[in-house]
Write a structure and sequence with these properties.
By secondary structure, this protein is of the alpha/beta class. The protein is built from eight helices and 16 strands. Helix 2 (107-117) runs parallel beside helix 3 (145-158), helix 4 packs across helix 5 (222-235) and helix 6 (249-258) crosses helix 8 (275-289).
Length: 315
Amino acid sequence: MGAVSQRLFGVEWQGPVLLASGTCGYGEEYSDLIPLDDLGGLVTKAVSVEPREGNPPHRISETPGGMLNSIGLENVGLEAFVREKLPWLEENLDRARVLVNVVGNSVDEYAAVVAGLDDEDGFLGYEINVSCPNVEGGTMFGTDREALGRLVERLRGETDRPIVVKLTPNVPDIGAYARVCEEAGADGLSTINTFPGMLIDVDKRRPVIGNVNGGVSGPAILPMGVYLTWQAATATDLPIIGIGGIRSAEDALQYVLAGASLVQIGTALFVDPESAVGVTEGIEKYIEERDVGDLSELVGTVDVERPARVGLGYE
Ligand code: SIN
């Protein structure tokens, strides 16, 4: 394994870059575009117990510096995922790791997805989505520490596979939520999901997005993602996967220095699917040029003199 490989969640990751949930389908959709098996891995679109149709169009709009999306967690549902999507992942990815993004409307629904997948092959673990701003209840668990703790505890009882919780940025103190996940038995965190946003068509005087609001992603949110990753990293010992606005190796390295061991690329793929490969190569070059032994030596090493100033002063 090379200088950018990482040992995390009990396994070796050949590279630090994963494709983010919702931006690469179930993997197969991207197989003609980039050599998926050369990446660190990918996170599938969310899987729920029942299939979901998602939100009405328009579902995506470009913004200055990013994208607004409101897909509404459209997915094929647990049964079809196991029957039609997992076999492709198992057959085609040997080295890249797969996390399945899991959603539900209740603790029981999340648990049913995990229980329904746990004996299957073709993936390493779960990214638990408690942070979708685009459906009713999508952030219900991600913004209530007690509910979050109960959810993670229950899922811990359902599986020995890695549980990575994808946190919402829309809380006053992400560190407190990170600690809840750690105490409840999570193995890692993904920081962060999108910020809520809205665009208005001034000719029609109507929202651009069919569901009115959506989640903002892309370069515009990079500084928020880096900051919240740093906050989460200083609050817990859990390994972190950094997400939000990454387009280049320098962007990814900011997350690494803030405390992320792996990163995810999402919105950038809509502009350049190969950016995931370029980011990995750029990180390799940075390590080589600076005579760093390997990537893990850089994780969380940003030189900051004061402790994280957490929270906004309210619960
Ligand atoms: C969506 O499906 O609307 C986006 C998913 C998410 O933000 O978690």
